[in-house]
């Protein structure tokens, strides 16, 4: 009796991560997604069927199946997230959400906070890193953490600036003396994977877990301490991923992305957590990882063959989470969004350039679906991650096939007597009701999740967005901008997918993180082919099939006005004006987290010392090799015999 009671009490502890009915979650999603996709496909088939299915229509139908499956999965993920959030049910345990309770229980093990950087803006990484350090120093468990900046910077001037600013940082934070470490690799072998591997092999054995930060990450001390506590409390968990929320955006586009993330992410992440359960994905930062299993199971090999499927594993984070789960360790996504932040590119060009890198990394995952021992959920992560970009070129192909079919029908005389001995003509049949049902059903798949996200925020979080009216204004503008921007991103993603498939390599350089107004010259240079295509496409359809032209108008409008959209949405003046008007307001702007206050206050006053600083000292090493995994063999068992010192 007492054992049962203790187990029940243990599960009520907010630090405890566990799932109920885990095996049935994917079955539930299957029973929701497949009938929805089948119904949508059948309705499209019924529109085509009465008039003799052509090759172009068959092509549209085949491609549309994949799109409907993709849309249905996203749709039901959002619906489930909406229901669970509305009823305040935890997506993992399926019980009422427990309010976090304050606990004075100290951490028992040591942890590291690491920030890998590569040719980044010195001011931003140092200010953000210092904010995280000071946040942790303000907690009762500060003595359990060491702090590492792991530099792969190749630019000599930036490397010099990093050393100078690090020396100043050590002088400012005297209470962390002996626990602040800066390491710069002479050769950045393996990019970020090699950077983190080098840390693990040299110093990982000294720590239980590592909190991984990106160059633009900021996390509160409360959130980082919470991650460490959850990791210690759950012995079978190797990864806990937070939801990094965009902040510090001033341009219209940056604020649009930031607002959309704050509005929809809690609901979408809840739905995602429902079906992925203990096989959560890793997004590369703002997460804590248990070092022992990471070292034992996440040494990544080079993939045989040529790009895009061969070579170094680019989007390593998905693969590392999959390998941890393959070895029997649990990986979780926690869906409360407080205290975990990142920044996003402030204009559409820089945003698209970042996506270009992710396109190649995610498409490469299709070649890794055959890794032996992967869980079904992780295979779905690989598949959906790639399809997030491939879907654009599929949609583009469907639209082009539909246009070609409509033009052929408009320029050829109909044959009412398909058979030689036919007595009665085959009159064209237009199933107008079925067309309308298909149209509205597709619109529901696309936009109902957004409407539910706005409704949920109105019910539960309207104060976070400046009140009901401000939320309504922001949500309405976000919906309109999403429609306008979608064709531009569809064109870019289609181009990126094609370039990856024909073997063009991508450069993984530092991202543009600070805002900039895109010059008209650049805006036109990056959109000239898209605009030309929109003009030709629109002119041909307007001439031959005016009805189709009206249907395509939302797509053609975004493509035609690509340059002014990119230029105007990159404006900080426009973005800040919207903020003053109560459009795109988020909670962190009127109830700022202490970690963000530190960044805001320190950014203007940051300066380099101008004195060439010596190479900082590093802690003593406890070298432990990180074995490279063999994807063709059975996974190593949970709790490998890899010795890790404590």
Describe the structure.
It is built from 21 helices and ten strands. The radius of gyration is 26 Å and the shape is globular. It has 646 residues and is of the alpha/beta class. Strands 3-2-1-4-8-6-9 form a seven-stranded mixed β-sheet, sandwiched between helices. Strands 5-10-7 form a three-stranded mixed β-sheet. The protein has helices at 2-11, 22-48, 55-86, 122-137, 156-172, 191-203, 221-233, 252-276, 291-297, 316-326, 348-364, 376-411, 432-460, 468-501, 520-525, 528-544, 546-560, 562-569, 572-580, 587-590, 594-602; strands spanning 111-117, 145-151, 180-184, 209-212, 218-219, 237-241, 245-246, 287-290, 330-333, 340-342. Residues 1-7, 422-427 and 640-646 have low confidence and may be disordered. The chain is 55% helix and 7% strand. The longest helix is centred in the middle third of the chain and has 36 residues, at 376-411.
């Amino acid at each position: 009796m007492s054992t049962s009671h203790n187990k029940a009490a243990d599960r009520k502890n907010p630090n405890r991560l566990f799932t109920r009915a885990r095996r049935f979650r994917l079955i539930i999603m299957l029973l929701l997604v497949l009938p929805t996709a089948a119904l949508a496909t059948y309705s499209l088939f019924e529109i085509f069927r009465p008039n003799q299915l052509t090759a172009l229509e068959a092509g549209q139908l085949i491609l549309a199946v994949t799109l409907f499956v993709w849309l249905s999965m996203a749709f039901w993920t959002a619906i489930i997230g909406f229901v669970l959030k509305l009823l305040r049910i935890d997506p993992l345990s399926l019980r009422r959400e427990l309010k976090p309770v304050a606990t004075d229980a100290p951490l028992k093990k040591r942890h590291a906070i690491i920030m890998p950087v590569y040719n980044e803006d010195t001011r931003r990484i140092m200010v953000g890193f210092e904010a995280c350090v000071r946040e942790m120093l303000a907690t009762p468990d500060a003595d359990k953490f060491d702090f590492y900046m792991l530099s792969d910077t190749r630019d000599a001037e930036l490397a010099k600036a990093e050393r100078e600013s690090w020396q100043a940082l050590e002088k400012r934070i005297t209470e962390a003396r002996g626990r602040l470490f800066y390491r710069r690799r002479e050769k950045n072998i393996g990019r970020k994977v090699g950077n983190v591997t080098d840390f693990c092999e040299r110093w990982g054995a000294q720590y239980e877990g590592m909190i991984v930060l990106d160059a633009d990450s900021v996390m509160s001390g409360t959130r980082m301490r919470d991650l460490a506590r959850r990791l210690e409390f759950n012995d079978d968990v190797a990864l806990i991923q937070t939801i990094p929320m965009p902040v510090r955006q001033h341009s219209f586009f940056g604020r649009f992305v930031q607002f959309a993330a704050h509005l929809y992410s809690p609901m979408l992440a809840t739905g995602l957590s429902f079906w992925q359960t203990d096989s959560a994905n890793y997004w590369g930062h703002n997460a804590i990882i248990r070092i022992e299993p990471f070292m034992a199971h996440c040494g990544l090999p080079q993939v045989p063959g040529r790009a895009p499927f061969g070579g170094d594993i680019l989007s390593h984070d998905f693969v590392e989470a999959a390998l941890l789960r393959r070895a029997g360790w649990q990986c979780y996504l926690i869906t409360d969004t407080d205290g975990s932040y990142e920044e996003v590119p402030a204009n559409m060009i820089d945003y698209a350039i970042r996506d270009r890198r992710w396109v190649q990394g995610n498409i490469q995952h299709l070649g890794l679906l055959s890794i032996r021992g992967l869980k079904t959920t992780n295979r779905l992560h690989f598949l959906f991650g790639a399809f997030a970009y491939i879907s654009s070129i599929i949609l583009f192909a469907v639209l082009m096939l539909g246009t070609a079919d409509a033009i052929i029908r408009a320029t050829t005389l109909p044959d009412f007597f398909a058979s030689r001995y036919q007595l009665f003509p085959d009159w064209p049949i237009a199933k107008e009701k079925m067309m309308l049902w298909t149209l509205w059903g597709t619109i529901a798949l696309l936009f109902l999740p957004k409407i539910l996200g706005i409704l949920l925020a109105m019910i539960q979080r309207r104060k976070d967005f400046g009140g009901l009216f401000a939320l309504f204004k922001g949500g309405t503008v976000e919906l309109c901008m999403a429609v306008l921007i979608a064709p531009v991103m569809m064109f870019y993603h289609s181009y990126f997918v094609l370039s990856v498939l024909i073997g063009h390599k991508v450069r993984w350089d530092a991202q543009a993180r600070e805002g900039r107004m895109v010059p008209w010259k650049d805006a036109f240079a990056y959109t000239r082919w898209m605009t030309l295509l929109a003009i030709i496409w629109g002119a041909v359809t307007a001439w031959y099939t005016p009805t189709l032209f009206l249907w395509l108008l939302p797509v053609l409008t975004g493509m035609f006005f690509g340059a002014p959209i990119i230029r105007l949405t990159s404006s900080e003046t426009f973005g800040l004006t919207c903020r003053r008007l109560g459009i795109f307001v988020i909670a962190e702007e009127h109830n700022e987290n202490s970690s963000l206050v530190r960044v805001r206050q320190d950014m203007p006053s940051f300066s380099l010392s101008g004195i060439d600083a010596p190479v900082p000292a590093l802690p003593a090493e406890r070298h432990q090799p990180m074995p490279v995994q063999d994807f063709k063999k059975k996974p190593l068992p949970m709790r490998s015999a890899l010795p890790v010192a404590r």
